[in-house]
Fold this sequence. Notes:
The chain is of the alpha/beta class. The protein contains 14 helices and 24 strands. The strands form seven sheets. It has a seven-stranded mixed beta sheet with strand order 14-17-18-13-12-20-21, sandwiched between helices. Helix 2 (74-90) packs antiparallel against helix 4 (107-128) and helix 3 (92-103) packs across helix 4. It starts with 15 loop residues before the first strand and ends in a 5-residue tail after the last strand.
Amino acid sequence: MSSTTTSQDLKFDGRALINGKRVDSRDGQLFDCISPVDGRVLTQVARCGAADIDAAVAAARAAFEDRRWSGMAPAQRKRVMIRFADLIQKHGDELAMTETLDMGKPVKYARGVDVNSAANCIRWYGEAVDKVYDEIAPTPSTALALITREPVGVVGVIVPWNYPMIMAAWKIAPALASGNSVVLKPSEKSPLTALRLADLALEAGIPEGVFNVVTGYGPEAGSPLALHMDVDCIAFTGSTRVGKQIHVMAGQSNLKRAWTELGGKSPNIVFADCPNLDKAVEAAVGSIFFNQGESCNAPSRLFVQDSIKERFLEKALALVPGYAPANPTLPGTVMGAIVDQIQMKSVLGYIESGKAEGARLIAGGEQVMAETGGCYVQPTIFDGVKPEMKISREEIFGPVLSVLSFSDAAEAVRLANDSVYGLQAGVWTSDINKAHGVARALRAGTVHVNQYDEDDITVPFGGFKQSGVGRDKSLHAFDKYTETKTTWIRIDSPV
């Protein structure tokens, strides 16, 4: 599909994909897939339930047991994964516009970030799988102990609506590369690109039954997947509230592995000796308003040292007009629509809470473009935020920045760590000792120094505390989707 493709050119198939076939839900139920861009119904999507989950898991189990995929040599799986990645790039314009219409992000980022990142992730794990070696233990000469990785079996994957392709790729890529079969449930708020990924996987040569996609609501499709007795591992990205339920369901069923990447309220600390204040301002503003603030790692708590706070905010406010929401299907748009009416009302509710608790609204705070039928909220900044305020403690998942001040490094670390979350953090300073000391003291899975959100597939992603369990990305992700087996062989040497 060419880069000139418009939203009107796309036709969507909302049926689930089970055992290599597009199918309706067993009971024929559907739900409307509504675009946050303008409120129109894009298509109707299969509203899958427990019976559909059973069918998808059975297909995945059969594919795993007959070794049509897990029995392939790693080099063979690699070739298929690389073809899969190439097809994602080939259909990149279609996938990008689909993602934009489905969840509201600007098409320039859907194409330049989401499509490219998903393809790169799948290609990287395909390339890696035949380069990961097993081990031989240092046993006595009377034994040979082999330590091998084996696929865990059937992997259930539940992903959120904010980065549908990237979040799916982070999980399905290492799971598939390891030889597992997968049942993916995308969010009901943004299911369409997941379904197309499954089509492309089949075209690339991933056998029928190995990669299945079931669409539907959490209680009706997600819960049966997490509770299923024939699912060996459940991988989830989403809210901490639901993540806790996933762990409970894993324990209630077959004690399946549960890997959860959850919420964040990431602190971004700017010291007075910041080496480049303009760069720090651009990163602070750009990172919170990117993807409409709908990012778990967004630096939503900004801590600025007292002596530079007013100058920092003056520069930040000058940048805010550049993030005015606009139609995300237009190539120049940098901030699009909130994913749906429910999430928009939640974001506006947090803004009202901030005002009611005494924070000072210095930018934005309003719904805009209501006449379009879409879901648009202005980029919003609160100053004078106190640590105990709701907007400082809870994940908003919208374009809302809370600004707090601090006097010294000890206070900055104490305030930053005063959160149930620990996903990411940022530190801006010219002092290498301070940078190292503060980074070590912060309880976060990733600490950015003199930048925010620079990233690479080679480094792990995940958090401390209630930001989740396990790591996506990097070779560490293979640990989530493989079992470690020891084979001990007795040697009676004739020599």
